[in-house]
Amino acid sequence: MSGEGEVPQEIRKLAPGKLVIASHNEGKVKEIRALLAPYGIEPVSAKSLDLPEPEETGTTFVANAELKAMQAADLSGLPALADDSGLCVEALNGDPGIFSARWAGESKDFGHAMQLVEDNIRKLGPETDRDAHFVCALALAWPDGHVEWFEGRVEGQLVWPPRGGNGFGYDAMFLPDGHDRTFGEMAADEKTPLTHRADAFRQLVAAVL
Fold first, then answer.
1. Where is the chain membrane-spanning (predicted)?
2. Is 84 annotated as catalytic?
């Protein structure tokens, strides 16, 4: 997508066929596969192609998504879609943000990550604002280096203790605005349309499919 002050370029359309999902996170791949199902796209996971996971050196969600998508497209010779997403807590100045996965450690223990978030909020006192939002940046890259990107978000509040065993990541402690159940308590078909990922996908679908 064009930046401010740049001449807008025509958005490239995505043709039906194989598309690499540049993620090794099975939860994300499953959500993305469901969102793409109606459009004649054949999702192939980076893991199934033995593609390596690049080091996420970007300083924004968009930069990290582009990095992952461009590497997957270059190595596979196919269009590739990457997502970079995370939980941003207002009281923690946006943390864990782009480091959301890293807070879970090498073992990807999101129970530990949620506890870290809660501990950091409690250090600020019992009246601390618990507003938070999820952000999802989607980058769609082609082997020739062309990239389109889209960013979605969903607002909510953090609850403690975590509620529900569905979903993944920080879902069990995130209560989306206007709802009385966390993402962790919702079935996939109820949760998916509400998510930051679905918000970004609606933009992608309108633009490239």
1. none
2. yes
